[in-house]
Amino acid sequence: MAKTVLKIEGLKTSFNTTAGLVRAVDGVSFSVDEGKVLGIVGESGCGKSVTSLSVMRLVPKPNGHITDGKILFEGKDLLRIKESEMRKIRGNHIAMIFQEPMTALNPVFTIGNQIGESLALHQGLTGKKNVERCIELLKTVEIPRPDKVVDEYPHQLSGGMRQRVMIAMALSCDPKILIADEPTTALDVTIQAQVLELMKELNAKLGTATMLITHDLGVIAEMADDVIVMYAGKVVEEAPVVNIFKTTKHPYTLGLLKSRPDMLDEDEKLSCIRGMVPSPYNMPKGCAFAPRCDKRMDICDEKMPNLIEIEPGHKVRCWLFEEGGA
Fold first, then answer.
1. At what angle are helices 111-123 and 159-171 packed, to 10 degrees?
2. How far is CA 132 from CA 10, 115, 121, 152, in A?
3. Mind listing the pLDDT tens digit for each residue in 166-195?
4. Which CATH class is domain 4-93+175-316?
5. pLDDT digit string, tens, across residues 96-108
6. SS3 of 12, please?
7. Which end of the chain is less crowded, N or C, counting CB atoms within 10 A of the terminal residue's CB?
8. Sign, CA torsion 109/111/113/115
9. pTM over 0.85
10. For 47-157, where are the alpha helices, taking DSSP H only?
């Protein structure tokens, strides 16, 4: 059995806005095992990125706040420790690859400065040893001319190269957990494939537990061992990656799969999920997906179903599978 490195229990994260309270993450629970990749998938605004920021305790303040739940890292609840202790964990034991490398990297500091900062802070490496380690990390992520790139600035690199730098920064202290938030966004298909292949190789080599956040089911199929599907701040389906594609249960997950084009079928008509994601200020009383669901029942409008296990490792939040639902 693989060791569980991160366990989330009943996580709730909310934001105070001028229009009212937004429950961005509403009772999410999952775990990530050593050497495994957990894929988190869903439409924009479903709570994927806020979940990752909650794990890092980087939810924007003062409007954002974690209201309930536990974030257990090797048995220690990260929500109960001091900020000074969290700073020792963040970037050292838990690292994050942010969504847009051009905004995540500081334009006025060299690549070496930015990778080296984490090495100096967490590992005490300075001077020549710091530079040597930076070059070694750039080689690890297969950046050409690493001895030159270490002295260059972000604007001198392509999008794919900047993303590799972000991966090098995240891996600089050999973290036990790597959070990748849309790591291939805005990259062309060729570079995307290269970055994903690199992440797979590093995951296998280093045995890091990985949270991969994306809306791309192709990336999920390529990378993930297990998958959770989120909608309106809640987990609606959770299963091994094979089950998600072969024995799909939740109507929302099925809708996501049907909306992917089949490159082999030229006459296929592209499907889509009707309607819109509900407003976070005016969520439905019952199941949040009910207004868009083709299998909607009366009970769906009245009460939110529980997330239940219908077979080993496969959980779903839908009245079709609740006792007394269908």
1. 10
2. 43, 11, 16, 15
3. 888 888 888 899 999 888 776 778 878 888
4. alpha beta
5. 988 776 778 899 9
6. strand
7. N
8. positive
9. yes
10. 48-55, 83-89, 101-104, 111-123, 127-140, 146-149
